[in-house]
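FYI - complex with alpha-L-rhamnopyranose, inputs then prediction.
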Amino acid sequence: MLLNLLKPKFLLFAALFSVGFAANAIAQDPYHNQRQDWLKKAEDNKPQLSETDKYPVGLVKLEKDATAFQGWKASTVDSAGKLYNSSFKNQSGVIVDFGEHLTGYLTFTLKALKGTPDAPVRLKFTVGEVPSELALPFDPYKGELSRAWLQDEIVTVTTIPSPVTIPRRLAGRYVKIELLGTSSNFDFAIGSLEFKATTAVTAKPPLLASTTPKLIADIDRVGLNTLKECMQTVYEDGPKRDRRLWIGDLYLESLANQYSYQNNALTKRCFYLLAGLSDNDGILISNVFENPEPHAQAGSRLLDYCFLFNVALNEYVKATDDKQTGLDLWPVAKKQLDIARKYAGKDGMMDYIKAGKEWWVFFDWKDGLDKQASLQGITLYTLNQTYELAKLLGKEGDVSDIPALAKKLKSAAYKNLYNPKSGLFVSGANRQISYASQAWMVLSGVASKAQAQTALKAVTTVKDAVHPGAPYLYHYYVAALIESDLKNEAKEAVQNYWGGMVKKGADTFWEVYDPNDELKSPYGFYPVNSYCHAWSCTPVYFIRKYPEIFQR
Ligand code: RAM
C-alpha cells in the first residue's frame, strides 16, 4: 500500500533524475553537436563488400610433424571430387582445403545416394585458419576468451536436397566435417560446398619491382592477404576474432592500405565511427562494434590507442590531403592530448604508475614488459604528430602549449631513461632493457641518429632484453630501425620475423608469433589466437613505402 502511494512520486523523481542525468551528460559531452553527423559520415562511407564464390581445392589429412608450425601438418590426400562422389558415411571427419584463407559464409547441400531420406542429418563443421585448430580438442575449454569464438558449428539438415548456409560468418582455410547422426535407411553425399568470400578490397595493388627478393615478395603477398581479409565493413582486427574495429589495428591497417589498396573511404569511415562513439568526456574508446547498431565496448579505454588515433589521423590527412576529415575530427585529436597533460609530471616524466592504475596501457602482449619508457616515448611521438596535424589544419593556436610540453618530456626522457654508458634506454625502477623501450625512444626523437643506431644494435646483444611478443610491437621496432637509417637491419628483421611465418606455411600473418614458442597465447589456449590478424600486415607498408630497402 505504502509502496503504491510512493510510486507516483518515486517515478516522478526517477524521471527528473534521469532527465537531469542525461542533460548533465549532454552538457559535459564536448561533441554533443557533432556525434550524429560523424556517425552519418561513417555510414555514408561504408563499403559495399565484394563477394566471390570459392570452392574446395582438395582434401587433406593432418599429421603430427615436429617441424611443422605448432606440430601439425596438412597434406593433400585426395581431390575435392571425392567429397561429392562417394558416401559421406565413410568420410566423417574429412578435412576440406579451400587453398587460401577466406572470410565469409559457407553453404552446402546434401544429396541422397540410395533410399529415401527419412530422418534429419546432423553434421558438425569446424573451420580452422591453421591446422592445429582442427587437430586439438576444444573441450574442456581452457581459454580465457569466450569458447564461442572457436569455429565449430553443429547443423541439423531436415530437407534433402536443399542448400544450407551456416548463419555465422566464418574465417579460415580448412573445414572439417563430421557426421553426428543419420538414419540407416538411406545413404547420402555432400552435393556441393562453397564459400562466399567477402572483402572491402576491390583494387589491385601496384606490382613490386622485378628486383624484389623472393622472400620479400612472399611476405608482401601474405601481408596483402591478411589486410584484404581484415578489410570488411570496418578494419577488423581479425576476421575470426575479435571481428571489430580497434584503434591500434586501424592505425597499422590504414598505413598498409595507403601503400596498397588505397581504400581511403574505409579509413575515413573508421575515424568517424570511433569519434562518434567516443566516451561522453570526449576520450576515445579502444574498440567499437557495428551491429546491430554501431556501439563502443563500454568502459574499454586504452591509453596508447587514444594517442594512436591522432597519429593515424595525421598520417591519413598527410597522405590524402583530406583536410575536411582532419578539421571535422580535430576536436577529438585535441581532446586526447589532455591525457598527456594529465600524467606529465612537473619533472617532465609521465606518471606511468598512476596511468597504469587508471588505464589499460598496452604496447605489446608481453608479460613483464615495463612500460615507463614506451609511455614516455609514445606520448612525445603523439605530441609531435598532433602538432604536425595542427599545422596542416591551421590549428596551432589550439595547442600552443604542446611544443613546450614536448620539449620538457624529451629532456626528461633523456635525463632519466638514457644510459650513456651502455648506449641503451632503460625503463622502470629495475631499469629494464627491452625492444619496446628502444623502439619508442627512437620514434619519439629522444635519441639522436647516432644514439638510436647504438641502442638498436646494442639491444640485440643484451641477453635478458625483453623481446617483442607480437607482430604489433615488431612493427614499431622495424619503424625505429628505418627511422635510424639501419636499412639492412630493418630488411633482416622483416625477413627473419615475418619471413619466419611464411616459411612455416602462413597464408595470413598471425596475431601472436614468438619464433621460440609457437604455442604462445595471451588467452591461455592457442587455438583461440587469431591467425589472420590486422596488426601483422605491416610489411606491406614497409616494403612498398621503402622500395630502396626492400625491393632490391
Ligand atoms: C586483442 C585484439 C586487438 C588488439 C587488442 C589490444 O584482443 O585482437 O588486435 O588491438 O587486443
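Residues 318 and 392 are 8 Å apart (CA to CA). The first strand starts at residue 50 and ends at 54.
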